[in-house]
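Table S2 (text version). Query chain:
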Amino acid sequence: MAAVLVVSCLVGVASAGHAQHASWTQLEELWHAEYKAVERIKTVIQPVAELGDVLKTYVESWEALVDGLEPPDWGSEDPAAGFSLLRHVAEGWTRVDDALQKTRSILHIIEYLASRPDREPLPNTDDVAAASEAVTRLAHVYRLNTTALVEGGRLVLDPVTGYHHPLSANELTSVGLVAVKKGFLDVGVQFLRAAKSRASVVQQPRLDNMLAAAVKVHDHVLEVNGPRSLAHVTATTPYGGPKEASPSRVVKAPVVLGVEYLSRHANATWMLERRPLVEQVQVERLCRGEDLRPPRVTSRLKCRYANGGSPWLALAPFKVEQVSLDPYITVVYEVVSRGEAGQLKKKMKSRLHTPYFPGSDSLTAAVEGGWSLKHTWLQEAEAAVLMGVGRRMRHLLGVTLDDAASEPYMVADYGLGGEYSAHRDTHGPTRAPPTPHVGERLATVLIYLQTPTQGGRTVFPWVGAGVGGTAGAAMVWWNLLSSHEHDFLTRHAACPVMRGRKTVLTKWVGYVPQWRTMSCSADPSRKVMLPWH
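Corresponding C-alpha cell output:
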C-alpha cells in the first residue's frame, strides 16, 4: 500500500478538464501555429537580448554612481559626482535609446505573440496526460518494442522502417507514471526503466525511487489480483527479486463468439463480471490483426459486384466484400472519391472545436466520454458531396439516407492513439432516439475518408472479425433484428491509431422511414440482410 501511495504522489492528481488537442487535424494546426510562433520569436530574440544587456549596463552604471549616497545627497555639489552623472546619462542613454528604438519596431510582433492564447487553444496539462495515456495504450495494445525503449530510449512504432522519435528521460518518466496510474503496470515499469537508462546523474536517485515503487506496486497487484482485470495489466511474472524470472508462455483465454455469446448474454452474473474483460481482451487481439473465427466460418465469405437491383447502378456496380454473415457486415469499395474526401475533410476542419447534438437546435458541447477523437456533424445541404454519397448508398442498400429520414452525417477525426471503446450504435431500451421521426438506428454506414498506415482497425469482438479500412470504402452493418430488437453481436470498437491519420464519415440509417418499404420476416430473430445477399 505504501508503494501505491508513493506512485500516486509522484503522478499527482490529474486535471478534470478534457484534452483539447484530441485529433490529428488539431495537432496539424498546432504544428503550423508553433512554426509561425517560433519564427516570430527568432526575430525578437536578438533585439530583446540587446535591450536587456543595455538596460542592465545602464542600471549598473547608475548604481555605481549613487553607491553609498542617499537621495538627499544626490544634489551635492561634488564636481566629480556631477561629471559622472553627466557622462552616465549622455553616453548611457544614447545606447538605451538605440536599443529601445530597435525594440519599438518589433513591438507588434511581441503583441502578436502575447495575444496567442486569445487566438487559439494551447495545449495544457490535460493534453500532456492524454498523450501519455495514448502512448501507454499503444505500447500495451500493439506490444511495442520495449527492448528498444530500454536500449535507446526510443518509442519504436515500426522496427522495419525504423520510424521513431527520441523521447527524453523526462518524457519517458511522464508516460511511465501515467501508465502506472492508469493500471498498465507492466508498461509503466518498462517506460520508467527506459527513462532511467537515459537519465542524468542528478536524475538517477529520483528515478530509482520511482522505478522501485512501480515494481513493488506491479508485483503486489500481480500476486493479489493476477495479471489481468479491467483495472490493471501486469506481466505474467514479477519484476522484483534477486533474479527476474523469465516470462512464461501466455495461455490465451478461450474465444467467445456468436451463438455462444448470445447464450451467455442471458446470464446476468457473467454479463456483469466476465463479459467486459473478455470483450476487452478480444478487442485487443483483433486490433493486433488476428481473426478469431475458425476457417469453417471465414471460408464462406465472398467478394462480388453488386448493384442492389438498381438500374442506376447496373453499368457501374460496387465491389462488395463480405466481412461477416451473422451479423451481415460488408465493405463496399469506392463509395467516395479522393477529391470528395478532401472536400469533406476541409469542410469539417474548422468545426471540430464545436460539436453539437444532431437533435438540438442550439450548439451544445457534446459529451465525448471515453472518445479520444474530435467530431462534428454535417447536414446534406451543407455539402453537395453528401447528397451524392446518399444517392449511391440508397440505390445499393434500398434505404433512405437523407437527413429527413436519418441523423446527419458525423465526421470523426482520430488523434494520437485515437480510439473508441466497444459499444453498439443503437440507443437501447433505456435511451430514446434523439429524433422520434427517425427512430432507432437500423443500419450503420461507416465511410473511411482517410485511413492510418498502422492501427485504427474497426473490430467486432463478438463476431471475431476486424477491418483495417480502405480510403473511400464504406463498412455497412445492420443493428436491428426483424423484431426491432438490438443485435448485440454488432458491438464494435475503433482500435488505437498507431501511425497515420484516421478520418471517418458515419451515417446512421433511421428505422421509422424504412419499415414500410423493407420486407418483414415472420421470424422475429431473423437478421436483416441486403437484397443481394
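Notes on Table S2: Residues 1-18, 158-162, 245-249, 354-371 have pLDDT under 50 and may be disordered. The radius of gyration is 31 Å.
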